[in-house]
Specification:
The protein is of the alpha/beta class and 276 residues long. The chain is built from 11 helices and 8 strands. Among the domains are: 30 residues; 152 residues, Cupredoxins -  blue copper proteins (Immunoglobulin-like), CATH 2.60.40.
Amino acid sequence: MVFWNVMSFPLTAGLARFLSPATRPILLLPCAKVTSCLTLVLLICFETVLLSTVSDCTKSFYVHWNTTNPIFRIDNTDHIIDVNKGNYPFEYDQVNIICPVYTPGTHEEDAEKYIIYNVSKEEYDTCRITNPNPRIIAICDKPYKLMYFTITFRSFTPQPGGLEFQPGQDYYFISTSSKDDLHRRIGGRCSTNNMKVVFKVCCRPDEMHNNQTVSHAHAATTPAVTSVSTPAPVSHPPSHRPTVQVPHPTFAPRPTTHYDVPKPTTKKSSEFDKHP
């Protein structure tokens, strides 16, 4: 009776309902946390796999920006680089511009230092920067420290003022720095050592359409050739056998006409047999 009275007390009854298994919502919180954690882990794994797949399809270029690099020789066209060629949408190539680095014992006057600019076609051809505020790509002014600058050839960038590379356009990088003047903007090693690079971004929309059209046309003609060539051996023997059998009936009447003389003698129906 005392136990029943205690349970019938309003405060005690409410506490009992809170402690009952059916009314304990606080126990659901760990399950929710586990579910959210598993979802987050799955999303991270999916994004990692997607990024790794995309990165395998893209290409990375390495340009050592110094006078000993053979791509800057005037007797070749290695300084003209095609990027984003053959890539799928949202796949972008990268270039790593590596600054000259020297051992600590090297004299500083013997070390090469550069400022690399993104310039126009005219400035590229003349090695003369006329833009008062040129776009600086890289500053290689620490010869005893490994420095490199990575550029992604994407058509848009989330960073304000970042580089954007439109399909079908050419982008020109030069360095007019000289041995004595890092900030020189006329001549410099652009003129003496041909320190310039062209990046040709593929492709214009019409070129992409033409490439897709050619690929589809090639894919369409390839099965047509195979379909014609495969039944040819099967259909040829039946068509060839009647042509071989046709001459036999044509030659058969000829021997019969040759031996056609004794036939009327047996029948005795000709006028020559009746009157010898």
